[in-house]
Structure formats: C-alpha cells, structure tokens
Amino acid sequence: MAPRGNRIMRYAAPLKAAAQRFAFLMLIAGAVGLIILGKADAVLVERLRVAVSDAFAPILAAFARPLATLDAAIDEAWELINLRAENERLREDNAELRHWEQVARELGAQNRALAEALKFVPHGEERSITGRVIADSGGAFVRSLLIDAGARDGVAKGQAVVAGQGLIGRIAEVGEVSSRVLLITDLNSRIPVVVESTRDHAILAGDNSDLPRLLYLPSNLSLEPGTRIVTSGDGEAFPPGLPIGTVVAASEGAARIQPFANWSRVEYVRIIDYGLKGILGPLEPLPATARTKRPVRP
Amino acid sequence: MTALAFQLDRWARRLFPFALSAFLVVLSVVPLPIPSWGLVVPSFGLIAVFYWAIHRPDLLPAPAVFALGLIEDILSGAPTGLNTLVFLLVYGAMRNQRRPFLGKPFAVMWFGFLVVAPAAIFAEWLLASALAGRFIPAETAFVQLLLTLALYPCLSWLFASGQRAFLRQS
C-alpha cells in the first residue's frame, strides 16, 4: 500500500503545481479579457458591474450612515461656535435676497406676458430623484460616485445629477438599486454648455483636475473671470440652464471652470428626470422635414 | 456534531484572510468627510494581497485575489480589470518570492513593500493612461502611493494580530 501511495504522491504533486500555475495564468488572462471587454463597452461587463454594485449597495449604505451622523454632529458643534457670525451673514444675505425676490417677481410677470404674446409652449414637467452617495469617487484615475438610487426609483442613463448649487455630473451606469455618476471633472466627461451672458456655446471637458476646461469656444471671445456657465440643453441630454460654475482662468478660446458644487461634501445628490431620451439613446434617422432642402433656383 | 462544529470553525478561520481583505476593500470606498479623500484613499487591497501572498498564500488563493481586485474595480468605478490584473501580478510575484521574507523582521517586509507598491501603482497608472488614450495626471496617484506606504505598518499589524489569533493551528 505504501509504495503505491508514494507513487501517487510523486505524480500528484507536480500535477497539482502545474494545475495551479495554469489556473493562475487563466485568471491573468481573465483580467486582461475584462479590461479589453470593458474598454469595448461590452454589455456583459456593464451587467457584471451593475450586479456587483447592486449587491454591495446595502452594505455601503450601512457604512455610510453612521459616518454621516458623526459628520452631522461635528457640523452642529461648529455651527454653535459660529452662531453670531453666521447670524450676521444671514441677515446680510436676507437683505440681498429680498432685493432679488423683487427682481424675480417683476421678471416672472414680464415672462408670463411675453410667453402669452408669443404662444410659447413650455416643456413638460421635470421630476427630481434624491440619492445618497454611498461610495466616494474612486481612486486616482477616475472621478465618479456611487449613489443608492437606481432604475427602481426612475433613474436612467444620461440624466443630469445636481448637488447643492450646481451640476456635478451625469448618470453613467444604472442598476436596480444603485447607479454610478460620472462627474464633470472626469477625463471622459463632455457636457454641452453655454456662457450665460453671451449665449456662446462650448463643451465642458473634464481632465481629472478640479477645474474642468471649456473647449470649442469662439476664438475671439475673451471671458471675464466670474462669468457663469450653464448647461445648454444641446444634444437633449440635460435640461438647459442648469448652473455649472464660473470662469476662473481664461485665455483666447479656452477657459477653466470652478464648479459651484462643493466636491468635498457631496452627501446627497438630485437626479433630474427631464423626460428626454438624450444623446445616449439609440440613434434614430432624422425626420424628412429636418433635412435642409436647397431652395430650387428659378 | 462536534465534528461538524470543528469543520465549521476551521472553515471560518480559513476564510478570515479573504473576509478581512474584502471588508477593507469595501471600507476604502466609503465616503469620509475629508476633502478629496476618495481620490487619494490608500490601496488597502494592495497591502492585503502583498501580506497574505507572503504569509498564507494557501488561504488567499489566486481566485480570491481576482475577486478582491474585481470588487475594488467595480466599487471604485475604475476600469474593469485594472486592479484585478495588478493585484494578480503582485500576488504572483510575491508568492514566488516569499521565502526571503518569511521569518524576517518587520522592517524587511516593509522594505519589500516599498519596492513592490510603487511598481504596482506605476503599472496601474500606465494601464489607466493607456485605456484613457492619454497620460492621466499622476499627482493623485503619487499621494495615494505615499498614503499606502505609510499605512502599511498599521494594516500589517492588524493582519499579523488576526493571524496569531485565528490561524495558529490551521
């Protein structure tokens, strides 16, 4: 019995080692395959990502809650310390806001009258969905967030995501209970925007820095620092007029934008469902009427 | 019955390295109220893979490393397969080179990590840049590397205590 056992061992050990080495190489090949498939935007990889995100969403939400509570407690302590100064600032703000309220009322009345005169057809209702950030923008190479709202709540690919004062990104992946937000600072983010004061169109492009760039500005345009940039609604991905940020540094035909959103404290986000298909939807042929027809020369 | 309990206990103990590593990977994406934390968060997964590849590669086999990398990729929003590949390469290299490190003082281990971690994060940066089609600014990756190196002693201590507590006999 003993010699036979030895013989089995003699063959089994190298075989086992070879099998292990083969399994390891297969795993390496699997990882490379995932990278290639992921780069090619394969549906399979996206399904896998969405399934894993959904599976971990409840765990992440459970982690995020106590931390948020702690954060809120620290905030409250600071607020108590700064109460007087805060009160003073709010009084000033209030006076200014009263002035703006007056202006808004006047403009509102004027707008109604003009819309009436022009028989303007308003766009349909826009709805917003609230989501909590459950995973932070991950690592050194991407700028994105995971939130705890998904298809179940009405979130769809391409919708605009707003936090606090302004746009922070768009929905890139949707799961059943979680979604991934691609931030406007990410390398792959391209948002059609418009300069609020001059109505010049441009593209806001992220480059992983905190200040995204404006591309394709008219070359003769020089923007003043502090100029507001809003979404244009071009490509029908976003509602027009969502505030994004202000110009901080500008040169001929290029500018950097300081977003309104406070990146370090994004805890809740609002997803705007504008009822649009967006540029991410399937491409449809142009209707015949939209094609430009050359006038027939006499 | 006792045999079953014994088996279950054994399995729970053997699962410990993977469970703790997976827990740390999940923890690394939890948003903290620290500005830009998410961009420079140390790579807990890299430390875990390095440590267990040297000390107990039998309890963190290659498929488990693959799973860790994939979880990290998906939860952090990184390109699918990026951390998976880098973790596997680090694991493969350390499993083959574990003899010189075994039974050596902590400083030797840390020195080893000081060599491996920059190589791993550089590889990751290179791969991410290739996928993006341009060079990604490397400052955040550099800060991440420094934090990862600085955190190594803490996590290594955590793993070592766990190993002493749960894995002495198995």
Largest interface: A-B, 54 and 51 residues
Give the overall pLDDT of chain B as a whole number. 89
For the CA atoms, what is the radius of gyration of chain B? 17 Å
Tell me the β content of chain A.
15-25%
Q: Please state the overall shape of chain B, judged from the principal axes of the Cα atoms.
A: globular
Q: Figure out the total of helices of chain A.
A: 3
Give the fraction of residues assigned to helices of chain B: over 70%
Order of helices and strands of chain A: HHHEEEEEEEEEEEE
- Count of alpha/pi helices of chain B: 7
Structural class of chain A: alpha+beta
The CATH homologous superfamily of one domain in chain A is termed Rod shape-determining protein MreC, domain 1
Largest sheet of chain B: none
Radius of gyration of chain A: 27 Å
**Stretches with pLDDT under 50, minimum 5 residues of chain A:** 278-298
CATH class of one domain in chain A: Mainly Beta
Cα distance, first to last residue of chain B?
20 Å
User: How many beta-strand elements of chain B?
Assistant: 0
Residue windows where pLDDT falls under 50 for at least 5 positions of chain B: none
Question: What's the end-to-end separation of chain A, in Å?
Answer: 106 Å
What is the total domain count of chain B?
1
